[in-house]
From TrEMBL:
Keyword Nucleotide-binding in record: yes
Family, per entry: Belongs to the 5'-nucleotidase family.
PROSITE patterns listed in its UniProt record: 5_NUCLEOTIDASE_2 (PS00786)
Domain of life where this protein originates: Bacteria
Domain Calcineurin-like phosphoesterase: 4-234
Descriptive protein name: 5'-nucleotidase C-terminal domain-containing protein
Pfam families: 5_nucleotid_C (PF02872), Metallophos (PF00149)
InterPro entries from the UniProt entry: 5'-Nucleotdase_C, 5'-Nucleotdase_C_sf, 5'-Nucleotdase_CS, 5_nucleotidase/apyrase, Calcineurin-like_PHP, Metallo-depent_PP-like
SUPFAM superfamilies: 5'-nucleotidase (syn. UDP-sugar hydrolase), C-terminal domain, Metallo-dependent phosphatases
Residue ranges occupied by any 5'-Nucleotidase C-terminal domain in the UniProt entry: 390-511
Keywords: Hydrolase, Nucleotide-binding, Signal
């Protein structure tokens, strides 16, 4: 007898096969995966097939944004969810819109909803979300009882502190899995499937108590029989790995003997865990064999019937996104924005700064210099198409979502020059040390890299990074040594001193997540999202000078990777395309000058 578990994770609203930013067909989507799962059930009527989602479903793509803006109507994403899943778990991004919106969404969900390590106290979500579920399936060999549990990182209390602080408590993931899985087996579960919204790392800094990526530790929990994991947008088993490393069997898709899958991001893959089951001499079910693998979404084709069922929802989203909000005179893109600040990144900083200055003019904030900053979110982390490209001309609402994809709320803080220097040191740490690595940039990865969403550019300053020195911080803002890369830091031509004060319009994620900002004085918390503020700003048809505040020394020629499509824009910069890598990315060369601020050798 075969039990098949199909799993998704980190779908982030990638439901319909349409690229809403470029208005073209998309070769991977949740509907690709749904069509495959529906066909599989028809072809294998004697198998037990279950479908689960491991969180980060309700935030990320334009369907999610539509739902949030039309939350009094039946949610489009939930309709699809109800047509696919037996069980869903929570991810960290489920909390981005707040508990009350999550309650509204989950009241429409027909699948079982599970999470074992978040205590919702008196909130009504506690009545909807179960600690675990055991689902009974009748088989020729008897009643098979399949259990599911889910955990999320304790860091949700930092990432969404403004929604969660004082309202929920979160228990350590690994400890929760140990006692909950044991309880499930004692309650009669024959098989326990863990849905871990956490990455897999063997780095002691990642898997220590309260670490973010603890799934490797959970493979050692004896009462867990299979694992779906996620959060870091990576893949497991990864077909590019050929060797066995310690307890990891990449070919079989197992760690410490347990089958497990991590199915990427945005419905790029479908995870599949298969169990061959039998009955022992005592009549109890036993696992005779197990294996796990991934199915690429791009290798599948959504059926006409599936597309037709959700066509009306797709049209609603298209109509919503077509609303004009402004105009730009030239193409804005983020292909080079980890080195050469982009107008697409700067626009968010300018919008945030304008919002803060309005509050100052009304007397709601003290009159201090305002520093606008932003990080580039879409810079290739999720593949060669994960970049912002806005053609010159009319801007629609979809452009604003492309400029700022997250639903973070505006938080304005006051900092001094000492904190500002640490902030810039963190940004400077995204660069590899000069002459010690072929690539100028560290990997755009949340695990063992430096994700672009943590690389902040301050557009109202002039500063210099000396990358011949070691990096001071890790990508997660953990101080790793005492080196200093920031050799110059000026505001309006004047050197910044440690005691200087500044107002910085930020966002709830940055303030709650960053260690050296947690004690910053909060001057203003808005219920409005940064994206709403950007939309309002773009409606004014703003004109701002393109600023390039960062200088990198030592000067010279450096190599970096970005999308091959960026070749179309190299004439705008001191950049040269050198080599295709065959995966949608290419090597580029940039000539960095020392004699002026701005990382381009050409204005």
């Amino acid at each position: 007898m075969k039990l098949t578990i199909f799993a998704t994770s980190d779908v982030h609203g990638a439901i319909y096969p349409h690229d809403y930013f470029n208005d073209i067909y998309k070769s991977k989507s949740l509907l690709h995966l749904k069509s495959f799962m529906d066909a599989h059930r028809l072809k294998h009527p004697d198998d037990i097939v279950m479908t689960v989602d491991n969180g980060d479903f309700l935030q990320g793509d334009v369907w999610n944004d539509y739902d949030y803006r039309h939350s009094d109507d039946p949610l489009l994403a939930i309709e699809v969810m109800n047509d696919i899943y037996d069980v869903i778990g929570l991810g960290n991004h489920e909390f981005n819109f707040g508990l009350d919106y999550l309650l509204k969404a989950y009241r429409q969900v027909e699948a079982e909803i599970v999470n074992a390590n978040v205590d919702f106290h008196q909130h009504a979500l506690g009545d909807i979300i179960k600690r675990y579920v055991i689902i009974d399936k009748q088989t020729p060999e008897g009643l098979l009882r399949i259990g599911f549990l889910n955990v999320v990182p304790t860091q949700i209390m930092k990432w969404d502190a403004f929604h969660l602080e004082g309202r929920v408590e979160v228990e350590d993931m690994n400890r929760t899995v140990k006692h909950t899985a044991r309880e499930m087996k004692e309650a009669g579960a024959d098989i326990v499937i863990l849905m871990s919204h956490s990455g897999m790392s063997k780095d002691p800094d990642h898997i220590r108590l309260y670490g973010e990526n603890q799934t490797f530790l959970m493979t050692m929990v004896k009462d867990v029989d299979g694992i779906i994991f996620g959060h870091t947008h990576e893949f497991f088993p990864d077909r590019n790995f050929e060797a066995r490393i310690d307890a990891i069997d990449f070919k079989r898709g197992a760690v410490n003997g347990k089958p497990m899958v991590q199915p990427g991001v945005s419905a790029s893959h479908l995870g599949c865990i298969e169990f061959d089951l039998g009955v022992d001499d005592d009549g109890a079910f036993e696992i005779k064999n197990s294996r796990a693998h991934l199915i690429e979404s791009e290798s599948l084709t959504p059926t006409r019937e599936t597309l037709s069922k959700y066509e009306a929802s797709h049209r609603k989203v298209l109509d919503y996104l077509s609303e004009p909000i402004g105009h730009i005179d030239e193409t804005w893109h983020t292909y080079f924005s980890r080195i050469i600040p982009s107008k697409a990144v700067q626009a968010v900083a300018e919008a945030s700064k304008a919002y803060a200055e309005t509050l100052i003019s009304r007397g709601d904030l003290e009159r201090l210099p305002v520093l606008g900053f932003n990080a580039v979110t879409k810079a290739g982390r999720d593949g060669p198409h994960d970049f912002t490209v806005l053609a010159g001309g009319e801007l629609t609402l979809s452009a604003a979502i492309d400029l700022y994809k997250h639903t973070n709320s505006m938080v304005i803080i006051k900092i001094d020059g000492g904190i500002l220097k640490e902030w810039l040191e963190w940004s400077a740490s995204q660069f590899n040390q000069a002459n010690e690595n072929e690539d100028l940039l560290k990997a755009n990865s949340s695990k063992n890299g430096f994700p672009s969403y943590n690389f902040d550019t301050f557009f109202d300053l002039e500063y210099t990074f000396d990358i011949s020195r070691s990096a001071r911080y890790s990508g997660t803002a953990k101080k790793i040594n005492d080196s200093e890369r920031v050799t110059e830091m000026k505001y309006q031509g004047r050197d910044i001193k440690p005691g200087d004060s500044f107002i910085v319009p930020a966002n709830n994620y940055r303030v709650a997540y960053t260690p050296f900002l947690r004690d910053a004085e909060i001057l203003h918390e808005s219920q409005r999202t940064v994206r709403d503020i950007v939309i309002e700003y773009m409606r004014t048809n703003p004109h701002f000078d393109h600023k390039r505040p960062m200088t990198i020394i030592p000067g010279g020629t450096y190599m970096f990777k970005t999308a091959s499509h960026a070749k179309a824009y190299v004439d705008e910069q001191a950049v040269r395309h050198t080599e295709e890598l065959g995966n949608g990315f290419s090597w580029y060369e940039i000539d960095l000058k020392e004699d002026k601020h701005g990382t381009s050798g050409k204005e």
